[in-house]
Amino acid sequence: MTHQQINPEGLLPPVGFSHAVVSPPGRTVWLGGQTGHHGDGSLDEGLVAQFRQALRNLVTVLEHAGAHIEDVVSMQLFVTDVAAYRAAPKELGAAYREVLGKHFPAIALFGIAELLDPDAVIEIVATAVIARGADA
Q1: N or C, fewer C-beta in 10 Å, the chain?
Q2: Three-class SS state of 30
């Protein structure tokens, strides 16, 4: 079975990973961790700004894999400061709806000590299942 690696231009170039892998024939897309990095490697400050950009990166990878946000069935959020996440529900919700609309997959939040980039405060991992066929 051949797996297709998805690494869109405009995102931070992957080193030792892929942004996503699509596996036919079931058309499941496993997205690698998306942080709030811009394609040039820059990173905005603050949880809400990084969350918004990480979601935008997730959408970019999904689109390049032939998927849509509605295909996402699961997301895991890894944050370095759970208290900051709890303190900003309205702002985080607004950022989520701005980028992803009202699609709410199964979501889990994990508090972690740190991410690879010490300035990153959130990383999002997701799984999507493309149900409309391989050519959609």
Answers
A1: N
A2: strand
